[in-house]
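Researcher: Go.
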Amino acid sequence: MTDTYLIPVPRLTTAMQRLVRGFGSEEAEVQAVATNLIAANLTGHDSHGIGMLPRYTDSFLQGGLTPNTHVTTLLDSGSMLRLDGNSGFGQVIGAEAMAMGIERARASGSCIVALGNAHHLGRIGAWAEQAAAAGMVSMHFVNVISRGIVAPHGGADARFGTNPFCAGVPLTGRDPVILDFATSVIAQGKTRVAMNKGELVGPDSLIDDQGHATRDPKYAVVPPFGALLTFGAHKGFGLALMCELLGGALAAGMTQRDAEASKRRVLNGMFSVLVDPAALADRAGFEQEALAFLDWVKASPPREGFAPVSAPGEPERASRARRTAEGVPVDATTWHEILAAAAKLGVDPALVQADAGLAA
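Model: Structure:
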């Protein structure tokens, strides 16, 4: 086990903004990237938080990430958009794509957004939250163009990425329901977090380079590589395939079929469907039924060893409240990797350390 630092959100924000400026990003991009990554940490998804910055740094230095880039429109038929992210920061590209989709859904009742060639879009739940805040139901199918990390059901090596699926449902006066998960048993970033903390991953989630079951997270992080398994056996595998076909082949025109492990860039394609529920049905009636069902489900008495039933999105909000008050935990290994990334970008690590309030 490694040491863990508990960093107050304001100090962590200042430190990460300093690092992101090392990419040459304009200030709006600095704010967007740092805020999005820290938001992922706050929700408890450290796999998609500031620990991604060393990977982003390597990608940038290899030419796989282009700062200060925005979406370009390849197709605009009103309620259907095809967009290119130009390998720009996903934190910027994702927000721009969703803003365009929301605008069209307001005008037409629905919009399909096909986004390709975006650098790592981060926690996809952020884009469902953006749509829900605008009153839109949304669904998102995402593929990953990077080193393959997930094995097909019954396969002994990696053939595709963690291919997340996400959906969001807004409810007036209540927090939205946000479902966001990788189609692998665990997200790839969680193996990095586990290795950095000196922990094992759960059983039945990973195989080694010989195709044998293992709990050692190194097989998903450093050579010789093994592979993550899909959740629910053939069910998660089937959904992962649909994410690749829709987010990759259809939206991005690019699928994962390369075993190259030297490239550090992470590109995402995302096929999103946004719907204004008021344009489809009586919104009050829809929400009444939705809330009645949620209340009915959550009233189920918890089984022994389980917490009370919660809806998707509620654990993240609880984590956000707790970590906002207490600070964000960052393990020492991840923090040292972040400082090394700062140095690669020409940013003085001592200043990042001081910004975070940590002793030199």
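Model: The chain is about 40% helix and 20% strand.
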